[in-house]
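PT: before anyone asks, these are the final sequences, not the draft ones from last week. 621 residues across everything. Please model them as a single complex and drop the result in this thread when it's through.
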Amino acid sequence: MHPSPDIGIWIGGLLTLGIFSFLYGDNPYYKFCEALFVGVSAGHWFITLFWTVFIPKLLGNIGIAIHTFRTEGFAAGMSDYMHWSYIFGGILGFLMILRLFPKIGWISRWSLAFVVGTTAGYYFINYLVSNGLMQIQKTILPLTSVGNIILVVGTFCGLIYFFFSKEHKGAFGGLARVGIWFLMITFGASFGYTVMSRMSLLIGRMDYIFGIWLGMIR
Amino acid sequence: MIGSENKTVKRVFSFLFLVFLFSPILIISIAEAQYSLLVPGDTLPPAAPTKTEAFDTPYDRGRSITINWEKSKDDGAGENDVKGYEILRSTEVDGEYKLIGTTVGGAQHFIDNDVRDGIEYFYRIRVTDGISFSLSNPSLPAKSKPQWINLRRTNIFIFAVALTFAILYYINRAKAGKELFIRKIAGLEAVDDAVGRATEMGRKIFYIPGISDMDNMQTIAGLTILGRVAKVAAEYEARLEVPVSRSMVMVSAREVMKEAYSNAGRPDAFNEDLVYYLTDDQFGYAAAVDGLFVREKPAAIFLQGQFYAESLILAETGNSVGAIQIAGTAAPAQIPFFIAACDFTLIGEELFAASAYLSRDPKLLGSLKGQDVGKVIFLAAIILGVILLSFRLMNIGPWFSVG
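LR: through. Structure below.
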C-alpha cells in the first residue's frame, strides 16, 4: 500500500467517500461535501461562463468589429455585421439584469420571450428534419429481410402510439400497443447499455480510491 | 513403414514441382525489382490539370468558394504517378499565388472556406508526382456571397408550410368552439392526486425542470407543466418548491409560478424564494437535490424536462423517500430509468402534449391536432415509399434527404 503524497488527491478521495456516505443515509459528512460541491461548482461555472462566453463571445466579437471599423474604414467596418450582431445578445443580457430593479424588472421578459421564441422556431425546423424527414428516409426500406420488416413495423406502430387526437381503441389501439412494446424493448436495451456505462464510472472512482489515492492496486 | 516413406517422397516431389512451376514468376519479379533500382527516377512532370473553375459555393451563407478541375492525364492513367494536388490562390490573375490547401491524387474538387465576401479570387492547381510538378491555368475570378434561400431544402419548406397550415387550421377550429379530442395520458391524470396527497400529508412538492437551459424545448415544455402544477398547488395551499440549475430557468420559472398563483386567485401565496438556483454543475445539482429529498421528504416529486445521467440518481432517491413521482422527458436514454423508478412517466412527445392536455387551451389543442396531421403525412409517406421500393417500382427516399 502506497498512499499518494499529493494533498489534492487526498482531498479528492475524502470528498469521494463523503459523497459515497449518502448510501448509508443523510449525515453531516455528506452535508459538508454536498455544500462544498454546490458552492464550489456554482462559483466555477460563473467564472467559466464569464471567461468562455462574456469575454470571448461578446467583448471579443465586438472588439473585432471595432478593429475592422478602425483599420479598414467605415464601409468595411459596418459590413462586418456578423461581429456587430453580438451587440444584440449583449443588450438582451443587459435587459435581464434589469430584474434587479423592481420598477423596470418587467423589461427582462423581452429577453425571455426572445429566447423562448427563437428556441421554438429553431427547433421546429431541426425536429422536422431529424424526427421527420430523416426518419421517413431511413424507414423507406424494401420488405426483403426480417431486419427491415422489424424496423418498418416498429417505426409505424411507434408513431401510431404518439397519436393524441384519436383514442387507442380497436385496430388502432392494437397497433399502438405493438408500438409501446417496441418502445419498451428499446428502453430495456438502452437501460442495460446505460447501466454498463455507469458501471464504468463506478470502476473509475474505485480506481481513484484504491489506485491513485491509497496505492493498493496498480 | 514402407508406405509412410513413399508418402514422404511424394510430398517432397510435389513441393519441388510447385517450386519449378512458380519459379519463372519469382525470377521475373526479382529482375523487375532490380531493374527499377538501376534505372534513374521519373524526370517528366505529370500533365497539368485542366479546366480549372472557381465559383461561389451555392446555397451557403457566404465566405466559401468551390474550385473544380479536370485531373491530370497522369492521374489514374498515363504514367499514373500523381501524388496529389495543391490549391493556390491569388487576388490578382498575374499576382503571387499562395498555397491554401492540398488534396490527394484523384481529387477534382476543393472548397475554400477562408475567403472574404465580395473580393475576387483566382485559383491555380498544381499537380505533383513527388519529384516534379505542373501548374494549371488560372481560373476566372470568383467572388463569394451569402444566399438567402437554400433550394436544396425545398422539401423542408414544403413540409414546414404544410404542418404550419394544419396547425393554424386546427387552432382556428378550436377557437371557433369545435371540441378537439385528446386521448388519456395516464401520468397527467395523476397530477391533481399527487398535489392533493402532498396537501393531506402536509409535506412539500418538489418540481425539477431538468438541467438544461431555456434554449431546450423540453425545459420550455417542463415549465408549461409547472404552470398547471403551481396552479393546483396554489388552490390546494400546498407548498411547491422548484430548485433549478440555470439562472434563465429560475427567472422563467418564477414568472410561470407568479402567473399560476395569480390565476388561482392566490397571488399572496407566491414567494420568489420558492424557485431557487443551486448550481449549473450537473452532479453538484444532483447531490443538492438528493439532499433536499432526503431532508424534506416530499410527498410528490415532478421531474419534467431534459435530464442526463442524474436522472436515475434523482428518481431513485425520490423513490426511497416514498414520494409519488411523475416524470417526463424526451431524452431516450433517460426514459428507461424514469420508467423503472417513477410512478408515472411521460414518454417523449407526451411531455410536449402535456401542456395542451392539462390546460385545454384551444391554441394548444389545435396545435396538437395539427401535429397529428403531420404524423399522418409521415405515415402515408412511409407506407407509400415501402410499397414502391418493395415492388421495385420507385425509390422516393431521396425526396426526404436534406441538403
